[in-house]
Amino acid sequence: MVEKQKNTLALFYCQNAPESGEIERQALEKEYGRSIRLFPIPCSGRLEPVHLLKALEEFADAAYVITCPEGACRYFEGNQRAKKRVQMTRSIISEIGLEPERIGIKVGLKEAPKSLKELAGEIFEDISGLRPSPVRGCDQ
Amino acid sequence: MNNISRLKRVLENGDFAVTAECGPPKGADPEVVLRKAEILRGKVDALNVTDNQTAIVRMSSLAACSLLKKAGLDPVLQMVVRDRNRIALQSDILGASALGIRNLLCLSGDHQVFGNQPEAFGVFDLDSIQFVQAVKTMRDEGIILGGESLASSPDIFIGAAANPFADPLEFRVIRLAKKIEAGAGFIQTQCIYNIERFETWLNMAADRGLTEKAYILGGVTPLKSPGMAKYMKNKVSGMDVPDDIIKRMEGVPKDKQREEGIRICVETILRLREMPGVKGVHVMAIEWEDAVGEIVEKAGLLPRPIS
Amino acid sequence: MITAERKPIDEIREMIAPFKKVLALGCGSCVAECASGGEKETAMLASALRMAAKMDREDVQISEMTIDRQCVNEFVIQLDDVIDKYDAILSLGCGAGVQAVADMFPEVPVIPALNTEFMGETKGQGLWVESCLGCGDCMLYYFAGVCPLARCSKQLLNGPCGGSMNGKCEVNPEVPCAWQLIIDRLSGFGALDRLEMIYPPKDWSKKQGTGPRKIVREDQQR
């Protein structure tokens, strides 16, 4: 098992991401336990800002989305929309005093595709510097 | 007090007219206006007073014109439609006429966002052409908008501005025709640096007979520096400052720049004097009223005809 | 459609501060079209407000509801069943919507979450432009379908002014000069001479003459 993560991550990911099927998802859940909650979606374009916001509101210290590489979205524009919605969500949480880094995006690379597991690892690295969410803190 | 328009008299007599511009102060001191009047006395036929130019609050043009009139000069009341509705505009015309002011220049006015009151409401109840028409109707028919009769009519020589350098070129002349049709008896143009382009516009106006229907005065502004030339070229809309003018200004040492600016200005006036469609010059020496006398003299326009 | 944009969250929080049970009320019409007050935006705003309240340890309940049109009293009346649960309504409707709700429930404070802006068009995805100011006396025929009151910064009826450069307005170079558009369109129709006529002063009494306006249609009433 991976060293216990201090931050809880909500991870939305396009089901076309490499090695992101049912088996891999279950393995990740076993590995990270309560530090991760995974949300497979048929296209990252289905992600709405409110999904990211509700994740932060209800349980997460950070909420990320994984998209397909530029130009490779099966539905053509989904990954671009995801990018814009991530930006929009960041600006909303900045307005209420939350660090914009709590919301993020990982865009796949065609030349060097990474698996869901690898990307999850990278994301946990990226968010390791965040303190526990002040939204969550009040429930403790 | 001589209650006639000296400007109109000079133009009707066929003399090349000279007008200049005077900006009222950002304050309530009448002496500022009177000092400017003294600098320009005898150098011009009439003196335009700007109306909250660039939407910056200054002493009202009407008040400043009244001061000039009392001092024996012939003021041109500039009025913009940005700040007053039709009630106030018509009322001010009656007041101006009562104070002996005999010349009017009707303008749209710079948008309020450019000045020091950007939060103000822009009125624009009439546009400049409708305003010209309203004043003409007050003067010639003795009625106001809506048809009600005036007890006595104002006596005003009506003018409008024209910009030969703004877009779209073909339409500029149609707009000029509309202003003259509405009742403009004289036209003052935006300042000229591109003489060829001005001549194109003038010829188009002449083709429509407009140079015979109204007196066109070409606008000129002496440059103080290449910086000023570049600023006007790039930052002021509706201006055409050719690169060779800028080169001329850059080509002289700093202490000779004003001299060069005046030289260019005088050359422009001399060219204007050769054009039959141009009946006068309007010198806009922004915050440099001292230069007007020198320019007018060097252009061979002194002394002014006594009217 | 009427366009609006969300107020800054700080400003909204300041206005809802005195209240403990707030209903964020969205509208499914114009403000949904311009992505400022529809169901999605209402959910986003409510979530952000709840998080902000938690961070400041404020004890406030923020619920969400969206009705089809906030400006039509047949829809506003749907609030009858739930209004008693709240001590304030945070309306994401346009100014008309906010007031329709306030008129229906005058004892309940209704707070605007949006700044209503203009009557306009969706020109493209994510782009809305102003085009009508409701003068009550439409002259669009004379100006080839371009309104000089709404789209000329100086409301000139005999434009353009001297500040029109390269087809742009001197006030904002991103704004096309409405008069350039009118001239181009009329030229396209071969009707440029229509502009030689001096268009008379606008009759503003059709907009202001009777104070705030009202339309009554008996054929539409019971």
Structure summary, number of beta strands of chain C: 7
What is the CATH topology descriptor of the largest domain in chain C? Rossmann fold
Query: Compute the gyration radius of chain C: what is it?
Result: 22 Å
The number of helices of chain C is: 8
Which protein chains are joined by the largest interface, and how many residues does each one contribute? Answer: B-C, 35 and 29 residues
Residues in helix, % of chain C: 25-40%
Taking the alpha carbons of the first and last residues of chain C, their distance comes to: 27 Å
Fold topology:
The complex is a heterotrimer of chains A (140), B (307) and C (222).
Chain A: E1 9-14, H1 22-32, E2 36-41, H2 49-58, E3 62-67, H3 78-95, E4 103-107, H4 116-127, H5 134-137
Helix pairs in contact in A: 2-3
Chain B: H1 6-12, E1 17-22, H2 30-40, E2 46-49, H3 61-70, E3 75-80, H4 86-98, E4 103-107, H5 128-141, E5 157-162, H6 169-182, E6 186-191, H7 195-207, H8 210-213, E7 215-220, H9 226-235, H10 243-250, H11 257-273, E8 278-283, H12 289-298
Parallel strand pairs in B: 1-2, 1-8, 2-3, 3-4, 4-5, 5-6, 6-7, 7-8
Helix pairs in contact in B: 4-5, 5-6, 10-11, 11-12
Chain C: E1 2-6, H1 9-16, E2 21-27, H2 30-33, H3 39-55, E3 61-67, H4 73-76, E4 88-91, H5 95-104, E5 110-112, E6 114-124, E7 127-132, H6 148-151, H7 178-189, H8 205-208
Parallel strand pairs in C: 2-3, 2-4, 4-5
Antiparallel strand pairs in C: 1-6, 6-7
